[in-house]
Structures are given as C-alpha cells and as structure tokens.
Specification:
Elements (H helix, E strand, L loop, with lengths): L2 H16 L9 E9 L6 E6 L3 E4 L4 E3 L2 H15 L21 E7 L2 E6 L7 H15 L7
Antiparallel strand pairs: 1-2, 1-5, 2-3, 3-4, 5-6
Helix pairs in contact: 2-3
C-alpha cells in the first residue's frame, strides 16, 4: 500500500472510532416511579443530564430551566456530598396511615423509597414529590 493510501485508511479508521461518541444520548440522573391508590397515580419519569425528561417511557421532552436545576439538586441531595446521602444508604421509609402515593427513586448512587405519609422524610423527598407532580401536570400533560 502506498504511503498516501495507508494514511487515508488510518484517517478513516480514526474518524470511525471517534464518531460513535458524538451525538450520543445524555445519561440519566434520576428515575422516579410513582404508584398509588388513586386513578392516574402511576407514573415513571426518567430525568437526563441534558435537562430532559421521559414520561412513562415516551420520548424525551425539555424541562424548564428551574426543573433542570431542581432535578440536579435532588440528585445531589439524595447522593450526598461524600456519597453519604439517603440513596447510598438505600433508605426506604415505611408508609404512614392513609398513604395515597408511593415513590421509588433510583440514581447512580443508589435508591430511596417513601410515601406521601412517611415519617422522617428529608427535604429532598418532599422536593422529589413536588417535582414529580409539576412535571406530570406540565410537561407530561397528565391529570396528576
């Protein structure tokens, strides 16, 4: 093979190896599953690093800037500053009396589970429930 032919083959190989990394899908930061005893309680939300969310395994949709910031704050609070947050400890709070909604949240650091009536919820659990409701009503256009 001539020198210019070899260089062209090497350049094509390098380009081919570089392309698969371009334009790939953003990673997930949070996966929230909500269940409950009322109609329309069932919901799955997948939040991505690039500020989008998928509702019930549908197409990704753009979050608002505030929702993107909130989802990242929740991820950080659940993981903890030194990987010592509730998700890394796999905190699962039992439901209290009169529970209507239950939440399971997964992220790279671990997972948590709680209900709307669980005792001892840290602020990040309440924030998760509120963000889930806001996204369900707004972006997902669901009844709850």
């Amino acid at each position: 093979m001539r020198r210019t032919g070899r260089a062209a083959v090497l350049a094509a190989l390098a380009l081919g190896l570089a392309l698969p990394g371009c334009g790939g899908e953003a990673g997930d930061i949070l996966f929230v599953k909500r269940t409950g005893s009322i109609p329309g309680a069932g919901l799955e939300l997948r939040f991505t690093e690039d500020g989008r969310v998928a509702c019930n395994r549908g197409a990704l949709r753009q979050l608002t800037s505030a929702q993107t910031i909130e989802s990242r704050a929740i991820q950080g609070a659940l993981a903890g500053k030194n990987d010592d947050g509730p998700a890394t400890r796999h905190v699962s709070l039992p439901p209290g009396p009169g529970t209507i909604l239950r939440y399971q949240v997964r992220l790279q650091a671990g997972s948590v589970a709680f209900s709307d009536t669980s005792r001892g919820q840290p602020p990040a659990f309440f924030q998760t429930a509120q963000l889930t409701r806001d996204v369900a009503l707004g972006i997902c256009r669901l009844a709850r």
